[in-house]
């Protein structure tokens, strides 16, 4: 059922048809982009679960490979789901410094049927897990650079943590949990730095400013940009019109109120 739900929304993006959904737009936009790049034209109706895709080019969004247009496109959701294995391996290796522990973690994920199943359909789950685990890995890597603050690698992992936080929140609001995790880790780091009497208040201020910039302002800017893209792409009338004001509907091509002067 979920595949018919999110696959249909991928089609909406390809056809630029406005719709409304409870989740933020990033996951559906990426599904639509994957379908567009792999030759899917957005014409499959996604009416009920189990309908055959027939000649529609759906593999780019789902599972397997797509050979349309003489190009090879790795399936999007499966690719992101497969990234969970190296993410988990690197995270555990960084935390434990134990190769057997990291390998065991990777093997457990490789043979986890739930992860395999979620990653082979057109769902938001593998996209969400990609950003969740990416945020955790980035956070752990940034912590490992604590002895060389403000270095290039430290800035890279701190900024990448912010990007992954925006990605997790941009797919589903459950991404708030990884925001909470990173937030608690940041508070712990700052409290530890504040108690370090060898650091001046100026240096502490720089640490605080860097985290505000990379972990608050950067994710907020990216999250806002997702909605800017969402409303720019979806400029045609669709099933989501009724959730918005008449003034907004007047901007949608094909709507009865299109280009009509609407009083404030």
UniProtKB/TrEMBL annotation:
One of its GO terms (molecular function) is mannosyltransferase activity. InterPro entries: ArnT-like_N, PMT-like. Belongs to the glycosyltransferase 39 family. One of its GO terms (biological process) is protein O-linked glycosylation. The chain crosses the membrane at residues 71-92, 99-121, 155-188, 208-229. It is found in: Endomembrane system. The keyword Glycosyltransferase applies. It is a multi-pass membrane protein. Pfam families: PMT (PF02366). This is Protein O-mannosyl-transferase 2. Residues 1-235 form the ArnT-like N-terminal domain. One of its GO terms (cellular component) is endomembrane system.
